[in-house]
Amino acid sequence: MAEEATAYAQVLTMLARDIIAQIEGLSDEELNTPVPLPEANTLAALATHTIGAGEYWTLNLVGGKEIPRDRPAEFRAVGHGPDLIARYESWISALQTMLATLPPTALGPLPNPPAGRRIRAIGDAPISGRDCLLHAIEHTALHLGHIQLTRQLVLALRAGDLTVAGGDNPAKGAPDA
After folding, report:
1. C-alpha–C-alpha distance, residues 77 and 83, integer Å
2. Inside any domain, residue 136
């Protein structure tokens, strides 16, 4: 594996394993609990979207592997912990295999980029394999943060420990006067 591809594999593997650690041990109820915030997603939806995007940007765009994806459905996903973990483990394995055999030319411009797929951050230029891998890292890291915060919120709601600024705890009722 080339040094650059090794670095991408290491970072994406670390992020995926961090996501696994966040969902491991949670019940399906906790994974699928809506949080009381506008436009917030469940842990299952976040984990499903993150892996769907990761597979798309790495295995599909860079590796050329056809992987069916329904992006809008990812945000409505109901998940089962062991299934999500198995999917992440499968992605890690496929990603490491792909990057171990990736020719250096695959990091250059994509030969068949999806129609209209450009990344604004690089001046609306056609994307390269390198751009796809870097975007996968950025996107996975962003959603790892969402997953970490959502997990904290779900567990605080379950325990009745959620407090609002000013000391009121809506889960436990108003403070004694």
Report:
1. 12
2. yes
Cβ proximity of 42 and 33 under 8 Å: yes
- For the record, the structure tokens of 22 come out as 């966040």
Residue 169 lies in a domain: no
What is the C-alpha to C-alpha distance for residues 155 and 98, in angstroms, rounded to an integer? 37
Q: How does pLDDT run across 37-58, given as a tens digit for each residue?
A: 999 999 999 999 999 999 999 9
Q: What is the pLDDT of residues 128-137, one digit of tens each?
A: 899 999 999 9
Written as one string, the DSSP assignment of 76-93 is: T----HHHHHHHHHHHHH
Q: Is residue 92 part of a domain?
A: yes
Q: Which tokens hold the place of 126?
A: 């056609």
CATH number at residue 86: 1.20.120.450
pTM of the model: 0.86
